Protein 1
Amino acid sequence: SSPVCHLEIDYASANNKRIIPILYQSYVESDVLDALLDSFATKANAYIRSLLDGRDLRTIAQDNLLVLSRLNWVIFSDDTALDTGMSAIAEAIATDVDYIHEHTRILVRAREWDRSGRKKDYLLRGKDLKSAEKWQAQSADKKPSILGLQSEYIFLSKSTFAARQRMLIAGISTGLVVVMIFALIALYQAGVAESEANTRATQQLIAENNAATATVAQGLALLNEATSVANASTATVAQGQAENAAATAEYRSTLVAQQAATSEANLVEAWQTQSRFLADQSLQQLRAGNVQTALLLALQSVEHFPLFYYGSSQVALLESLSSPVQEIAFLQHEGRVIGASWNHDESQVLTWSMDGTARIWDLETGEPTYVMNHDGIVWGAEWASSESKVLTWANNCEYFDLDFPGDCTTHEATIWDVGSQSNPLRLPHSDFVAGAAWSPNDEYVLTWSYDHTAHVWSGTTGELLQTLAHDGVINGAKWSSRGSNILTWSHDDRTARVWFVLDDRDPLIFSHENPEAPITYLSGAEWSPDENYVLTWGTDGSIQIWPINIFDTTLIGQHAYSVNGAVWSPDGRRIL
């Protein structure tokens, strides 16, 4: 009969959350609805009404009861069933429903394969095979445990799929060699035709020169016509011969040009055939689950765009780009993975996890090359620009919530010398460490904490060099691009501050306050691209710009609700 409980169930159902209903006392739906409406009429406050946002509470409750009626309930109705009920609740919470569904699906497929006489047509392939391999990797400590038939089914599916892939790649390679041979032949024919055309053009020039000579001879014959009729007749015959030679040369030149055009057309036709072949091979690879190979073939099929272009090439390219990326390595921790990042050449991946470790993985082998153990959850990790060191920060706290972490027994950042067996450098705080970052030149490390301080440390010795203090929890911090300044901000004291690194000067303090919204908290801050301004935003819905050299502020935006984030455009002229 609690309005808040019904709103929580409605929210959980709308977001596809898992709900485990417990039956403590039997109920009648109409009695529940009447009690709920009575409670709402007498106890509802403005906060609950704002959550309803004009919706009908009775309708929400009816929908909730319908959702709950479709679930498996844990019976917990009397004192004598306390141990049984608690065991049932623990078992329900621990049950991985998705794992059980996948176990059933793969078992059904495996039995169908076994009953068919183990025909290859029943084996897994493509996305089904990837999903089964991932499920198998996660099944070590799960119940029900994986069966021998399931393991054998997945293993044979994987080996058969790999054999098909090798055969297909071999076929594609052979086809590409044949196409390239035809292309080389066409190029050779085009070169021969061009050489013949040059020869014919030279002959045409010689013929034209002969024609000019004959014309001169004709003129001389006309001048001396009165005295030498025989010479005039000879000149006329020479002119006719020259004209015939010129006509023959022109015909041969035209023939050579036609042959060159034919050779060029043959080359284009070979390219077109190759384009259609590559597009078809791309689609076949995509259907086989080889997304990267399919994408490379599709790109080669549009190599001669815009000379010509086929719809099949477009289809192959778009489908390859929109398909899920094929896994090349499965990097598994013993607990939930919080984050990951590439190194510069993308040959390694850095991951960090709730299992208390950060790990560096070699993508060729899929195995960790360096494991960094912590006393607590690793909340973040960052490569140094040289990749010879890694910075991590970890906390061993009562809860996992960043906003309310509870009591912490360990709270520190750590500098690790990658591959070295020497002890890492410990950078402790007195409360929850919220983040850490290398300076641009890796010379220093910046850490910030719920103990109201940020620290600047030597990246080589781990020595504490400077302490930056706020009047509340420090929620974030950033280096300037030159490493000479640090920007910090606090949700609690509502200020952003610009500090001078290893300098005793007082910081620049920007108080994010709004007279129209007295209950204001600072949500975040950001440097402008040229670092001449600081942008702040808060729960009052406002966005403010602070010039670094002028102690003034410009209110540039006002939202109706809390602002959760903001970012500059690259040119620094707009803000999103």
Protein 2
Amino acid sequence: MSAPSSPHSACSTLDAPESVVPDRKVVKILVKILTARHGVLHYHGQTGELATYQWPTDRHGQKIHPSQFAAYREAHAFLYPCCLCATADRYVETSVLQRAEGINQGQYVAECATSTCGYLLTVEKFFGRASVPAAYYRKRKVTRRPARIRHMLNQDDPLLRVKVEVK
């Protein structure tokens, strides 16, 4: 970053890395995810395509609110949406958490747990939509708990500051 020409211009200069070139395929996929109206789209590593995520329900068919996803995940064979970091043989869960500040403050979002691929979606907006595909996930065996998701936060980006509620 060059020195500001006046004391007031320091706020307007940005230090953007020049070597970062967005992958057009990834950008196209992220736009599809953000603009989908019929349901949550997530990445299917084996096909390399987007798939519609099955929203979890209780045994009576009522959708589970995103605030209850963590508890549901503990008790059921349920995984969070898959981000773009997945490969053909590896499913990579997003983090689902409530934003503490910034864009979508107070809303539940699914985002790449390592802040690598750019997957970020406000999942809460799909909760009340009747058209969103949903499914009941079978109960887990008590001895098999799901893997813990650790959310890696980019401390330099104020838009990515979140309240991490991982148990």
Protein 3
Amino acid sequence: MIAMTPVGSKGWLVEQLKKNGIYRHPVERKKLETYKAVILYGLYEKYVKKGRIAQ
């Protein structure tokens, strides 16, 4: 049985960002896991939903 993270949870957001090549916060350069879900959702909206790539 495969354990899946619930859609929209912090774990899911981290997973989606990493799938799109974002492993650290684009400005502060800290690991994604250290941020709260609301910050991660903002990054998800900005970079994944809109198709941007964080450099």
Protein 4
Amino acid sequence: MAEANRSSRWSLQGMTALVTGGTKGIGGGAWAPRAAVPAGGGDTRRPTGCGTSAAVRRCGPRAGLVCHVATRATWQYAIVEELAELGASVYTCSRNEAELNECLKQWATKGFQVSGSVCDMASSAQRKDLITKVSSVFNGKLNILVNNVGTNIVKNTLEFTEDDFWFLVRTNLESAYHITQLAHPLLKASQAASIVFISSGAGVVAVDIGSIYSAAKDGKLLEKYLRATPLGRLGELKEVSSMVAFLCLPAASYITGQTICVHGGFTVFGL
């Protein structure tokens, strides 16, 4: 009996989870709270990578948690797998249908219980549709919600347009607030739910985001930031996804309202 109780405290078996934007970072390997964006052209609207924040709130008998865990597209993919490995049935979404289908195929070959649909989290109508689908798949109950969608626009503050501003607000703030609001009935129905918000470590320590992004292209600058990190190395995917999973476990049921940084001690020294 004692062994069974111990096992259940460290398992997500039988639980359901929604991870927003969970298909990115298929090829990602390591992360640091500064050098997160590879060199190259393309859209300047990119996932943030300057630290991590995960805010968890518990609903039902176990209530409320806030933690900081560095966010990056690679975490999204890793988090889906971490939760699935611990036994959870996971639902995820992506704006890219081809990317989503490829990920679902890969997860199926690994034996993971993962399903998903196309959703642009910046769209209110699509968020509502997403929750309707999740409710149908999980029979109206949801144990875990991981708000992991996030993006950034790399440009000087004075160059931001009104469209840029509202794009970021809709994607990074409004989407997490609204999807949590929509999911609340499902979370409450499970009677033991966790909500995790992934955000940037910039909420803990001020950072020069331009320098952070350019660090990916400048070896000397990257070295500077690594020296400012007590552990002196880049973080591994599992080191972030495992924290998110831990916060969702029954074993962590009394952790709530906290900010937990997963960045090798970067905020100890600041910038």
